[in-house]
Amino acid sequence: MYLLYLDDSGAIDDPGCDFSVLAGFSIFETGTHWVEQDLEAIAHKHFPNFEMEFHGAPMRCGRGMWRGIPKEARFAALEEALGLIRNRKSAIRVFASVVDKKAASGLDISEYHFTQVSSRFDMFLQRIYRREKRPARGIVILDKSKSEYAIQRMARTFKHSGHAYGLLRNFSEVPLFLDSQSSRLIQLADLVAYSIYRQYQKGDDRFFSIVRESFDSEGSLVHGLHVLS
């Protein structure tokens, strides 16, 4: 079973955000434990006496619980956490949908994001089947939000009636939702989404450069990143 952890960055209804992002990473079920352990080690290394949650925007800006934590420690933890993806390039694939809201007139951006990311994850699972001749199934896991019902409804529709590119054929269940405070892997998806948002919103590639080569791809063709601009 492949798990796709997703989070968003750049609020759709915030006029101060020009871009909206839905992004995260896929990993085989047996790999989650080791990534979680490595994230715990990074947290303990930099913040041994601090119960912290990896959360991109507050960590970068030093807001909320991160106020007073030295910038060097915050940035080092961000970079090391994202480095877990870069260092597992063969096992972890990044998927992202990026929308320039000026180009999205008339679109339901949430539905557009989910269509792009879910269909690309499904194509990834299809490629595994073609290449290895073994069924590959997937589940999408997101941070808890007010959009749970809408996303689950979309997934059912895409599986049984189809979306703009066909049917979702390899999903084992509708998307699941977890509290990010309880899941280090949802927290890592947050960092991925934020790194991509910073690249497109601010032209800041400090964090994006770490995951740039990890988008799902086949040869020179990059499948895992879609940009509407």
Protein architecture, described:
With 229 residues, the protein is of the alpha/beta class. The protein is 42% helix and 19% strand. It is built from seven helices and eight strands; from the N terminus they run E-E-H-H-H-E-H-E-H-E-H-H-E-E-E. The strands form two sheets. The chain has a six-stranded mixed beta sheet with strand order 5-4-1-2-3-8, with helices on both faces. It has a two-stranded antiparallel sheet with strand order 6-7. A hairpin with a 2-residue loop joins strand 6 (217-218) and strand 7. Helix 1 (32-46) runs antiparallel to helix 3 and helix 4 crosses helix 5 (148-160). The model has no long low-confidence stretch (mean pLDDT 92).
Give the SSE layout.
Layout: E1 2-9, E2 19-28, H1 32-46, H2 56-61, H3 71-86, E3 93-100, H4 109-132, E4 138-143, H5 148-160, E5 176-178, H6 184-202, H7 208-211, E6 217-218, E7 221-222, E8 225-228
Helix pairs in contact: 1-3, 4-5
